[in-house]
Amino acid sequence: MPAQPQPRRLWRDVTLFDGHDTLPEPMAVVVAGATIERVIPMRELDRAEAEACEALGQGGVMTPGLVDCHTHLVFGGSRAEEFEKRLEGVSYEEIARQGGGILSTVRATRTASEDDLFRLARPRLEALMREGVTTVEIKSGYGLTVADELKMLRVARGLGAALPVRVVTTLLGAHALPPEFKDDSDAYIDLVCREMIPAAVEQGLADAVDVFCEKIAFSVAQCERVFAAAEAHGLPVKAHAEQLSNLGGSAMAARHGALSVDHIEHLDEAGVAALREAGSIAVLLPGAFHTLRDTQLPPIAALREVGVPMAVATDANPGSSPLFMPTLMLNLACTLFRLTPREALAGMTAHGARALGLHDRSLGRIVEGAPADLCLWDVETPAELAYAVQPGRLRQRIFKGELSHGQIQH
Ligand code: NIG
Ligand code: FE
Question: What 8-state DSSP symbol labels residue 39?
Answer without folding.
Answer: E
